[in-house]
Every structure is written in structure tokens, then in C-alpha cells.
Design goal:
- The protein has 10 helices and 15 strands.
- It has about 300 residues and is α/β, with parallel strands linked by helices.
- The protein has a single domain, classed as Ribokinase (UDP-N-acetylmuramoyl-L-alanine:D-glutamate ligase), CATH 3.40.1190.
- Strands 1, 4, 5, 6, 9, 10, 11, 12, 13, 14 and 15 form an 11-stranded mixed β-sheet that branches. The protein has a 4-stranded mixed β-sheet with strand order 3-2-7-8.
- Bound molecules: adenosine-5'-triphosphate and 1-O-phosphono-beta-D-fructofuranose.
- Pfam families: PfkB (PF00294).
Length: about 300
């Protein structure tokens, strides 16, 4: 079973604003509300691709209730720990540029944190656990690392999609998959990455540190994937970018869905790219049909190293 963990979920409130005036009264149009947070996005895409998963994390207040209800309506299984504080609302402004304002997240009680730790303890070696997104303030900076250590004795397949800071703490741990974008990869090694060749160089170092599958996304410039002495380089399909929020999460979901379908790594990677791009080309996360259509268009170059 795939478990996604969103410790800090959100309602993503998407609003179009023309000529945004900082400090002035702006009137938005075309509002939408989606259950958000990185792990939740992974679960939503998995569900659309008919791969079961359970979304874990903390949810509370009227916002948490909205997230849970919407996910259930979409057929996403959840097992959130309930808290009394409200889950955050993240504002995503669409104008000439995308501006995001992400809230700090709900307060957690020690009891809720203990309940979550007990829940994670039930996972077995047959499970995947996707650790994605920021941490609420009540959790220590190294909470993901603590979870990884907690799970060391049972080889749960750990997938990490967080900031470069969180990833840095995790280098050397036996992770199944990490998907930083090229900026995050650069931050990890304190360099600016401007080419695929450079991305491959640093991705190899990440792979050698014990991460079985390393995907580096580079927005519209393609993506690279390293696994088992093979480098896969993908071109992304062309299209009109509408909303990149959740594109990276969709990439992770597409890859896991490909593996769950029994695809070879190259095709799991193609499904990852198709899922990321299909989300970039639509307002909400991608639908299955769009993903399957793009899947046919993604081409990958394969070389050994
Ligand atoms: N301009 C684009 N054209 C086509 N596909 C794109 C574009 N931008 C992003 N994508 C798709 O989305 C995937 C993830 O994009 P990106 O590298 O921006 O990840 P990220 O920074 O983790 O994303 P997020 O915005 O979710 O944080 C890419 O691999 C690609 O498939
Ligand atoms: O504040 P975090 O946890 O880093 O990111 C949260 C978030 O921006 O990530 C998702 C897109 O990847 C959105 O659904 C959500 O609003």
C-alpha cells in the first residue's frame, strides 16, 4: 500500500488577479478551492490513475473537514489525525506571474503527534511512505529524519519530496525515491545548476549516497532520472502552462503509479513526466485521460554509466 504523509495540508485557494497592486485593493476572479499539500496531491493523482493509497497527516477545523470530505468524494482514502486548530489555507494568485502565500499550519498537541507516530509504526516492508511538504511549527526540523530512523528496522520504501534543507538532513539514509527540482539539487550542493549535464553530475552523487531512484525535474526544460547505472533523460511535452502548483507532486505520483502497474523504470519515468506536465497544463491536478495522452508523447534517451 502507498501511504502519503502530509503533515501540513492546506486548502489551496486559487484566484486570478490582473495587475496585482501590493498594498491596494485587488479584486480576484475565477476562484477555486482544492484540497492541497504535497502528499495529498500525490494521493489525488494516484486515485485518478486507479492506484490505491491512504493519505496521512493532521487535519482540523472547518478547513480540515473540507479537505477530508473532498478527498472522500474523489475516492481518496484518508486516515488523518484530527486536531482542533484549523488546517491552513494557501493562497495561489494567478496573474502575469504565479504568487503563492502559504500559511504556517495548524497547531498540534503532543497527543496528536504521539498518535501519528504510533500510526507510522504500523507500516510494513510492503508499504511505500511518501514524505512531502513543509512541517507544522510544532514539529522539530528533523522530524522527517526521526521518522526515517523510526522505520529503519522495517524496510518501508521511503519517498521524499521536501525542501533541500530537509533532504540535506536525509542524505546517507536509504531512501527509495527523491525528486528534487534542479534548484533544490543545486541548494543541496551549494551550486547553481544551469544544465542537464550539471544536474546529472550532482544527481549521481545523490544516487551514490543511497537513494535508489533519483528524479531531477527541471520544469519545462525536461527531467533526468538515475537508477541502477542508467541515466534517463526526458523531454517534456509542449503545451500551454496554466498552473504549475502540484506539478512536482504529480511527477512523484506518476512514477509510483508506473511502478505499481509493473512498468519498467523507463516507462514509470515517462508516466511521471506525463503526470507532471498534464498538471502544468490544467487548473487543478491532471485527469487520467490527459495523463495517458501525454504518456504516448514523452520520449526518453537512455545511457549507461
Ligand atoms: N513549462 C512546462 N512545460 C511542460 N511541463 C512542465 C512545465 N513546467 C513543469 N512541467 C512538468 O511538471 C514537472 C515538475 O515540474 P518542476 O520541475 O517545476 O517541479 P517542482 O518545482 O517540484 O514543481 P512544483 O511547482 O510542484 O513545486 C516537470 O517534470 C514537467 O513534467
Ligand atoms: O508549504 P509547503 O508544505 O512546502 O507546500 C504546500 C503547497 O504549496 O504544496 C503543494 C504543491 O506542491 C500545494 O498543494 C500546497 O499549497
Amino acid at each position: 500500500m502507498i501511504f502519503t504523509c502530509t503533515l501540513n495540508p492546506s486548502i489551496d485557494y486559487i484566484l486570478s488577479v490582473n495587475d496585482f497592486d501590493y498594498g491596494g485593493l485587488n479584486r480576484g476572479t475565477d476562484p477555486s478551492y482544492f484540497p492541497g499539500g504535497k502528499g495529498i496531491n500525490v494521493s489525488r493523482i494516484l486515485t485518478r490513475l486507479a492506484i490505491p493509497s491512504t493519505a496521512l497527516g493532521f487535519a482540523g477545523g472547518f478547513t480540515g473537514a473540507f479537505i477530508e470530505q473532498t478527498l472522500h468524494d474523489e475516492g481518496v482514502d484518508t486516515a488523518f489525525i484530527h486536531v482542533t486548530d484549523h488546517t491552513r489555507i494557501n493562497l495561489k494568485l494567478k496573474g502575469e506571474k504565479e504568487t503563492e502565500i502559504n500559511g504556517p499550519g495548524a497547531k498540534l498537541t503532543p497527543k496528536a503527534i504521539d498518535q501519528f507516530i504510533e500510526q507510522i509504526d504500523q507500516l510494513t516492508e510492503d508499504d511505500y511512505l511518501v514524505l512531502a511538504g513543509s512541517l507544522p511549527h510544532d514539529l522539530p526540523d528533523d522530524f522527517y529524519l526521526q521518522m526515517v530512523k523510526q522505520l529503519r528496522d522495517k524496510p518501508v520504501k521511503l519517498v521524499l519530496d521536501t525542501s533541500s534543507e530537509a533532504l540535506k538532513k536525509m542524505v546517507g539514509e536509504p531512501l527509495f525515491l527523491a525528486k528534487p527540482n534542479h534548484h533544490e539539487l543545486g541548494e543541496l550542493f551549494d551550486v547553481e545548476i544551469t544544465s542537464k549535464q550539471q544536474a546529472i553530475y550532482y544527481a549521481k552523487q545523490l544516487h551514490n549516497s543511497g537513494i535508489t531512484h533519483v528524479i531531477i525535474s527541471m520544469g519545462g526544460d525536461g527531467a533526468i532520472y538515475l537508477h541502477d547505472h542508467t541515466i534517463y533523460e526526458a523531454r517534456v511535452p509542449k503545451g500551454t502552462v496554466i498552473n504549475t502548483v502540484g506539478a512536482g507532486d504529480s511527477t512523484v505520483a506518476g512514477f509510483l503509479a508506473g511502478l505499481s502497474r509493473g512498468y519498467e523504470p523507463v516507462d514509470a519515468f515517462r508516466l511521471a513526466i506525463a503526470s507532471g506536465s498534464a498538471t502544468a497544463f490544467t487548473k487543478d491536478l491532471a485527469e487520467k485521460k490527459a495523463i495517458e495522452t501525454l504518456f504516448e508523447l514523452v520520449t526518453v534517451d537512455v545511457t549507461d554509466f
